[in-house]
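Quick entry between incubations.
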Amino acid sequence: MSYIDLDRVSKNFGARGAIDQLSLHIEKSERLVLFGPSGCGKTTVLRLLAGLEVPDMGEIRIDGRVVATAGKNLVPSEKRDLGMVFQDLALWPHMTVQQNLMFGLNARSIPKREAHVRVRELLERVGLDHRIDAKPHQLSGGEQQRVALARALVTRPSILLMDEPLSSLDDERKLFSWTNRFPVSTTNASVTSPRTC
Ligand SMILES: Nc1ncnc2c1ncn2[C@@H]1O[C@H](COP(=O)(O)OP(=O)(O)O)[C@@H](O)[C@H]1O
Ligand SMILES: [Mg+2]
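Done. Structure below.
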């Protein structure tokens, strides 16, 4: 058994098959990149892991716990101890950078003082502490991507999922150097289409 296991997982959207009996085993602290053409099911794999989709068949385990099985999510997204950077980033447009990062900490009832320290610390690490009060539309694409990364990491998840992390090419190299600096215990699965390389 690995830290993350997908056993013969299938997912269909109506008649369209997105994933067909996929088995995948990821060890703790491993970094795995799923690479494939558009439409081959990469995002669906991440969404299944994140608990945002329900598998039709198969089983998903994280840290030895069955989190999803055929037709059922047994552990909700917020209880899977993971952070996700979405392809479209999905920052909340009406919230400042600080508020975007505080959201997950508030949901986990992290005391205010500690939450503020964590947000500051993480924004410094991604070089955005001076933009703490900015709204997403006031930031460049690369800066927005760094906010999304900081938001995914601020809760100190055991697993980091990143969908097309190379899509904002201006910050591509920096993004990878930043993720390398984050906790080595974080297991990382990311997906990339050939067109972004
Ligand atoms: N919510 C959805 N409803 C219907 N079809 C979907 C949905 N999400 C994904 N699909 C289909 O599933 C397949 C895999 O999609 P996706 O996982 O997004 O691929 P990738 O990320 O590799 O580009 C595609 O054919 C896509 O059209
Ligand atoms: Mg995708």
